[in-house]
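INFO  loader      accepted 1 record
INFO  loader      residues=561
INFO  predictor   begin
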Amino acid sequence: MLQRLVVQNFALIDDLEIEFGPGLNVLTGETGTGKSLLIDALQVVLGRRASAGYVRTGVARAYLEAVFDLQGRETVAAPLAAAGIEPDEGLLILNRELGANGKSLYRINSRTVPVSLYREIGQRLVDFHGQGEQQLLLREARHGELLDQSGGPELQEAVRLLTQTFRELAAARKALADCQATAMERARRLDVLRFQVEEIDRAGLEPGEEERLRKERDFLAHAESIARLADESYQVLYGGEDYAEAAVAQIGRALKNLHELNRLSGALRESAETLEAVLSQVQEVARELAAVRERAAFDPQRLDAVEARLALIENLKRKYGVTVEEILAFREEAAAERDRLLGSEAEVEGLQDRIASLCKEWEGLAARISALREQAARELERRVTRELKTLELGSVQFRVDLRPLEGPNARGGEEAVFLFSANPGEPPRPLARVASGGELSRIMLALKTILAALDETPTLIFDEVDAGIGGRALQAVGEKLLAIGRYRQVVCVTHAARIAAYADRHLRIAKAASDGQTRTLIAVLDADDRLEELARMLSGGRRITETARKHARELLAMAKA
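INFO  predictor   done
INFO  writer      dumping tokens
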């Protein structure tokens, strides 16, 4: 339950701390004292959007804190555990700093958390009910949500699964539509990719091929000169036919003489070794020149073939890359894209199969939900009618009309519309058309009573629940709030003394002006102060009379009875 609320520098509230108790907590005060502002503060501390206008003039930030005693409830256990946050001895502290620049800082048990988690925790801890929510009853789309809530976990889980299935179905349909819408473009792209891959494959390119071809072309283009020069050099070194004695023969003769000299004196041994190495090198050069001479025979056909091959490579480079390696890389990318596009046909078939499967799954869930909703509708009719009798609407009729919907959709096979009749003999008609403001207030209170018994929200806050209600009905509302307070904490803002008389804890809000500033104050009333506050409320803000005090005593006695 909500144990304490701290509000600092929030609009007219400079520094306020409120202690709440179990059961029914009632807040009263004259019009304009800040009761609605306090409800605003409660909603803001639980994560509602808030503008910088809430920050008290002249300060940098507002500070709001709400302390909850979880009392072993599992309401927020899962999201807290997922975030690694544990209650401190059963207490959970939510605090929010609202800056004058509009930015907020959110903390749970002193740990900064994302606003999404902060709001989720707040929604699980407190359920607000005000005049705005009464107006939601005028929106028939809300009726189905309330019916599903009343149906309990089984119906709610089935609706969750159906909603998830419909989202998956919508996503699959969109994916299929995208595939089909681009079929012509895909076919054109596929033709281009096929041509590109086949053109490169026909060329049979190899890495490093272009460089090898260029060298071969240069060799073939100068074959005659290469052969002539190689032959002349060979003859000089080894042949000796058109020249004087060949170099190899002359070096050989000189080497023979050196060996003889060394035999006689040994003085030129190193020189002989050097000349042997020279002879070997000259012989190797001669052999290489002979090989070049043999290979350099002019072959115009081979030259034409090399030129044609280089022209082919140059043509491919203009289209696909500046090197053979880049052309081959382009080919791999194009082939991969081609394969993906070819696989899209299988993707279309897969999507069609998935859509059919999801439609069948949706139909099964919708049928199950329809059966559960039929049971929930009849039970809700019975329970709301019973609750309305206790709220001085005993002769009314309340019905839940289940109207077919075309599917698949996110809600199921039907929509729920609440029907209402306040007068015997009049057939029930749509609630939005026939219910008065006071009737709407009591119908919503009846629904809240039913739903509070089903959900785990520990604190219910009612703002202006007495709107449009008078007389004996106010007493019935007070009794109902007191009854809810037996298993949930209730905080109620009211102008009605008949409701306030049932409070387990009565707080009064007032304004005070000092030093040119207006401040909001709050006090927990003891028995005497409470009697005076009820008498003031009965007097309508005028001078409190003994008659009003007597009436207040009667209300308190009636509430205790």
